[in-house]
Design the sequence.
């Protein structure tokens, strides 16, 4: 049973909706609910959360009945490294400046692919940095320091 | 006569040097990214939206519209040349476009696609100019109850008619509505789902959501797929269709345009339904249906015209009612709101420059695609040779700079990364993200109208069926649900979307 569920896409989709709905209702439980005449900030989220739970139940149940599998291969590496590259860019923008943040972004995001050729990525990084500085900093006038010193 | 004046006014706006440049830039950028494999029009627009924030609303919308049909045109280019549909509507173009390319007739296929699209664009520009004002006038009478019912109909229709599972699409709409509630509630000042994060007080940025789910999610899915590299690119050759080609195509182009315009004004029907219907019609009326699938030019001309007509007519509900009929239109609507323009029927009276300028510029944009893009096709196809491992970091770079430039806020980037992972999971679980985006954009407006309608009716929910216009929308919603549940249609729908 456990093994059969592992790749069951409807089961997991249903679970996702179910728990998102339940989570939303849990977080919104202290928001003033109000009445139908004068709805408080909690009314609408509560109703939506309830609807999500219902949808989640239907989809989970259907998944158990049909057991359709998820399609296509996964790249766990891309799933972890790619978001990391974006987070790193966000962290570096203020303390390090535009160019270092971009360099890290290009290198780390390129590392999330299957193939990583250092020379190629270096060239790509230089190209993208020159293009971005020209286009965004000089062209559109975005107010970011190229390299933060001191 | 009034129509004529409106169009002249539109031309005066669209033909300003600046707006012409925005239109051109949009068309070129859209095609540029549209031909790149593995990135669809939605991701393209999401990624490029921040660039338009620094220019005037009219210019921004003109540029976004240019990106939209440029991306679509780019998508059909790759469909014909390498059998890679950039988006679902281009799947139909693959059926006969790619065999044509294999037969050494890629040029005429591309040529007829551009000519058909231009014809469809011209007709639809006139359709919008003719019917837009009438629809808007009607919509001015709408109260909160009517708006709520209309949005309900739009969302349900979008979910039911979108690709993929209906129940999951509806669930994704609700997911979007819920995501739309994040942030400060305008009525009470209460902060909902912000978890004491100051950056969430204003809600989730729609560029953050769109880029995360569409661009990032798509890239992550592509990186897991090893078949993306190494494509056969057909030689283009002469672009001009022969006299025989033109004769064969004129009927399909006209029929395709009508089919596309019809499906275009219906909320929710994606362009794939229009192009697929056109393909089926052409196959039915053809004297020799066996030619289809082996490089019949009718199979390119009809669906491409239908596709473009549909895309263009989708602007009618967006501009006149403020209701997006597709994920792309949700993005446009979001862009309008960021520019401080309240979408709805008042746009036409309060910002006639925006309305008529945009409509005329769409026609100019189509003309640009015809006269500029075709000669540049060699350049576009050379882009196809850039390997994906070099392409996706570039897309990431532009997306990140775009998102950061909106508020200079690192938190937005973290949120983008989060939604990227979420978007990838949704894709794997076959939960269509476009309905979610519609729900997200419409969510706050829907809540507002629901609250107002309830206040005005003293808490009586019967108000939605008591008002005749509202009742009409509710009945239409019910009808759509019933019709789509019919077993016969359900089967056909599966056949269309699984193609």
Sequence:
């Amino acid at each position: 049973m456990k093994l059969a569920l592992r790749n069951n896409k409807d089961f997991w989709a249903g679970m996702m909706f179910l728990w998102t709905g339940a989570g939303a209702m849990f977080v919104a439980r202290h928001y003033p609910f109000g009445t139908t005449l004068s709805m408080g900030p909690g009314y609408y989220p509560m109703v939506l959360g309830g609807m999500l739970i219902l949808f989640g139940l239907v989809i989970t149940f259907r998944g158990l009945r049909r057991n359709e599998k998820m399609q296509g291969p996964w790249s766990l590496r891309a799933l972890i490294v790619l978001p990391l590259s974006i987070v790193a860019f966000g962290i570096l923008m203020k303390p390090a400046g535009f160019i270092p943040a971009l360099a890290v972004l290009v290198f780390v995001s390129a590392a999330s692919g299957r193939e990583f050729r250092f020379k190629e990525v270096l060239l790509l990084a230089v190209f993208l940095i020159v293009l971005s500085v020209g286009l965004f900093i000089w062209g559109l006038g975005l107010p970011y320091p190229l390299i933060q010193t001191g | 006569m009034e129509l004529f004046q409106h169009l002249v006014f539109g031309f005066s706006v669209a033909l300003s040097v600046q707006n012409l440049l925005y239109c051109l830039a949009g068309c070129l950028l859209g095609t540029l990214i549209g031909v790149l494999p593995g990135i669809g029009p939605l991701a393209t627009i999401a990624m490029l939206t921040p660039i338009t924030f620094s220019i005037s609303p009219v210019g921004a919308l003109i540029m976004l519209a240019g990106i939209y049909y440029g991306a679509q045109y780019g998508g059909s280019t790759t469909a014909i040349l390498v059998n890679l549909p950039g988006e679902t509507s281009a799947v139909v173009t693959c059926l006969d476009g790619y065999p044509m390319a294999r037969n050494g007739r890629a040029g005429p296929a591309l040529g007829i696609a551009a000519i058909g699209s231009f014809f469809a664009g011209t007709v639809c520009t006139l359709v919008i100019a003719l019917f837009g004002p009438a629809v808007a006038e009607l919509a001015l009478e709408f109260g909160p109850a009517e708006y709520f019912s209309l949005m309900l109909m739009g969302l349900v229709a979008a979910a039911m008619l979108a690709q993929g599972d209906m129940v999951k699409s509806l669930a994704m709409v609700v997911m979007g509505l819920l995501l739309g509630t994040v942030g400060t509630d305008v009525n009470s000042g209460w902060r909902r789902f912000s978890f004491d994060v100051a950056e969430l007080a204003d809600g989730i940025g729609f560029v953050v959501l769109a880029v995360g789910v569409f661009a990032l999610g798509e890239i992550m899915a592509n990186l897991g797929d090893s078949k993306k590299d190494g494509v056969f690119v057909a030689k283009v050759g002469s672009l001009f269709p022969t006299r025989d080609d033109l004769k064969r195509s004129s009927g399909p182009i006209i029929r395709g345009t009508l089919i596309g315009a019809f499906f275009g004004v219906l909320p929710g029907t994606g362009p794939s339904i229009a192009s697929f219907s056109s393909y089926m019609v052409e196959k039915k009326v053809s004297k020799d249906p066996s030619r289809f699938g082996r490089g019949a030019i009718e199979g390119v001309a009809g669906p491409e015209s239908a596709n473009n007509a549909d895309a263009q007519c989708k602007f009618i509900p967006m501009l006149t009612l403020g209701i997006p009929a597709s994920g792309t239109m949700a993005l446009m609507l979001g862009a309008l709101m960021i520019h401080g323009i309240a979408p709805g029927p008042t746009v036409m009276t309060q910002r006639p420059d925006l309305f008529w300028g945009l409509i005329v510029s769409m026609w100019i944009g189509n003309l640009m695609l015809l006269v500029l893009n075709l000669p540049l096709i060699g350049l576009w196809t050379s882009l196809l040779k850039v390997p994906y491992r070099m392409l996706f970091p570039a897309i990431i770079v532009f997306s990140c700079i775009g998102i950061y430039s909106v508020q200079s806020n690192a938190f937005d980037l973290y949120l983008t990364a989060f939604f990227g992972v979420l978007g990838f999971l949704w894709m794997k679980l076959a939960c269509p993200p476009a309905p979610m985006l519609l729900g997200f954009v419409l969510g706050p407006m829907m809540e507002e109208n629901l609250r107002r309608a309830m206040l005005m009716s003293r808490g009586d929910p019967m108000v939605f069926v008591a008002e005749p216009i509202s009742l009409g929308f509710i009945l239409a919603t019910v009808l759509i649900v019933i019709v789509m549940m019919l077993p016969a249609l359900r089967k056909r729908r599966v056949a269309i979307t699984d193609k």
About this structure: Chain A touches chain B through 70 residues (CB under 8 Å). Chain A has a mean pLDDT of 89.
